[in-house]
Specification:
Blueprint: H1 2-13, E1 25-30, E2 34-39, E3 45-50, E4 59-60, E5 66-69, E6 74-77, E7 83-87, E8 93-99, E9 102-107, E10 112-117, E11 122-128, E12 136-142, E13 149-154, E14 160-165, E15 173-178, E16 187-192, E17 198-202, E18 208-211, E19 218-222, E20 229-235, H2 240-260
Antiparallel strand pairs: 1-2, 1-20, 2-3, 4-5, 5-6, 6-7, 8-9, 9-10, 10-11, 12-13, 13-14, 14-15, 16-17, 17-18, 18-19
Helix pairs in contact: 1-2
């Protein structure tokens, strides 16, 4: 019990317990392959783990499983030490998002939106999508209420925009520009939380924004230090029991790392 209390105290000290009603927790993947658990409202974070490979994608399943894809398109379970899930056959995956026992993803290599079914461990849907010229997709967010998929994309630094792909469409509809104050940067990911609010995160200094799904307009939530963040996977703020389990897990990993030094 003391172990759990100490762990929760450490998490709350980092700001992860604060402002619980206004913004969720998110797992954040960094360029150096480390994963942090971060409070969107405060930008406070604690180390969680690592993918061990460079990636632009991160998705969170309903039971807490984290997924990521490497450049050749192999999916991995990165909840703990990376475990291979299966090949997608899609390269340069810009992002992944969990929905309906599978993962929505976008391949910048083939300009395709696809769905990987976690039951059959195969791609069951793939569609080439017409995008604005020179667009690079950085975020994929499935909207549960409509079934549509939103994409964050850019064609240069600080020139980001929000796209919407209706179910089974072959073209993305431009929703609007997504402005942000992170200079010489771009929006590296978008994701919906459990309430249906869309969030965006920038690459260089890890700014968090809420985003209008009607216009693409952004509202600043928090600013962070220099991070080089490539992807995020939102998680509703855990209830106390979940925080306890998370705290014990994080403290165990920290002690294990100290023993191996």
């Amino acid at each position: 019990m003391q172990l759990i209390k100490t762990s929760i105290a450490a998490i709350c000290w980092a700001g992860l317990c604060s402002v619980a009603a206004s913004a969720p927790l998110t797992y954040v993947l960094n360029t150096n392959t480390t994963i942090d658990l971060t409070n969107v409202a405060t930008n406070g974070s604690v180390p969680y783990g690592t993918t061990t490979f460079a990636s632009n994608s991160l998705a969170l399943g309903p039971t807490g499983t984290l997924y990521s894809a490497n450049s050749p398109g192999m999916l991995w379970d990165v909840t703990g030490p990376p475990i291979p899930v299966g090949p997608t056959g899609k390269t340069q995956i810009g992002d992944l998002d969990y929905a309906n026992n599978g993962l929505w993803g976008y391949s910048n290599g083939s300009s395709e939106l696809f769905f990987f079914d976690l039951g059959s461990l195969s791609v069951t849907y793939s569609q080439a999508i017409n995008l604005p010229a020179n667009a690079v997709v950085t975020g994929v967010a499935h909207q549960a209420s409509s079934g549509d998929v939103f994409l964050s994309a850019n064609n240069g630094l600080n020139n980001d925009f929000l796209l919407r792909v209706p179910s089974f469409a072959t073209s993305a509809t431009l929703v609007g520009p997504m402005s942000h104050g992170d200079a010489f940067s771009f929006i590296s990911d978008i994701d919906f939380d459990a309430s249906g609010t869309l969030y965006a995160m920038t690459w260089f200094n890890r700014y968090f924004y809420s985003v209008s799904t009607l216009t693409g307009s952004t509202s600043l939530i928090s600013t962070g230090p220099h991070r080089d963040t490539t992807a995020m996977a939102l998680n509703p703020v855990p209830e106390p029991a979940s925080l306890a389990a998370l705290g014990a897990s994080l403290l165990f990993m920290a002690r294990k790392r100290r023993r191996t030094r």
